[in-house]
Amino acid sequence: MSSSRAVCIVGTGYVGMACMIGLAELGWRVHGYDISAERVERLKLGIPPYREPGILEALREHLDAGKMHFFEDLDAAARDAQIVIVAVGTPSREDGSADISALQSVIHELAKVKFASWPTIVIRSTVPPGTTDALAHLARDWGDVVYAPEFLREGTAVRDFLDPDRVVVGCETPASAVGYVRLFERLQRPVLFTSRSSAELIKCCSNAFLALKISFANEVANLCDACDGMADDVLRGIGYDQRIGSQFLRPGIGFGGPCFEKDVKSMEFVARERGVGRELLSAMLRVNDAQPKKIIDLLENEIGALAEAKIGVWGLAFKAGTDDIRNSLALIIVEELSRRGASTVVFDPAVHVAPLPRDSRLVTSALEAAKADALLVLTEWPEFARIDPNLYAATLNLGVVIDGRNILDPDRVASAGLNYRGVGRGVWAPVDRPRVASVV
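and the corresponding structure tokens:
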């Protein structure tokens, strides 16, 4: 593919924007199309649609250099492109199946584009197996369709794009995907050519396995609490085994966000429809559904009935480094606290607007959120760990801290005269010293 030809990206969410910036970094011209005219106008002004370190600067740099252009018209964005990358949402339906209607709509709209040459349509959205084959059938008269899964993490999506472990391409013949693979030649990463269904399964099963490690870590942590063990040490000992590895082997409130739960549900639905074993997938979802309730039960055990209690909450995004609250378990916990009669005071350094219950409110600092009866830590923002516990010990009426992410230092918190509970960390009673008078 000639470097003078632009690559078109359909969809400017996390995946689409990471593709645009990553390809611009690699020297390609990119055209971005989005159905939202408001988003397109903001992008033209250099305003990114989400938070990620470095994305604002990179967006403006490539706009100024003329490497990146945004369009409200799909034909204008795509007609001169030889490669069109599609990265639109495939959310879960109520039955767990993936809603691919937006993806189907994009293919139907691309069929109307007056392409200058035969295009290769690259699907990067996460889809159940068999989806891309069906889309390829729809496009058989005007273009090739391949499936190239993304393995990007929110908060580090651009970095992950430029430093992949592998490039996976699902296609009917490798020749149909050569143009796409050439986009990544400078990265010198291994390329796996496989069938479209196999590529779809690689993506879904990779996410399912990572979700499994999180659920396993939570089960281990709960067992540690019951057996007087220390989950930090147990999981570290397990993770040193090179056959297992330490990544994603950390306990907490469960896995949330727009990917893991959706993908596990989709895989469970496909397995159920095909009549094959799904017991492990179903168990993962049950474990994950139960984990946020365990955090709330732990709080209730420490302070008693939650009715009329005022709970401080640190963190609302589903993970640190992003402002994304889609399928955030922190938001689910806040909603459950409200259902049990508690009010919440919430702070997140990246989230400034959220659909909170009527008796909850967002505040502008962590210490303001700590003016409460007890404190819950629900997102692993590193700045929370840097706050001196003596500062919030002065404002927590009941002196209880529930660390749902295990990011605080238990000794420091207990030394400030607070009752500390983490996930699988046992009981940390306050050091015997006079409590600071409450300031509310």
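(Above: one complete record from the training split.) DSSP finds 17 helices and 15 strands in the chain.
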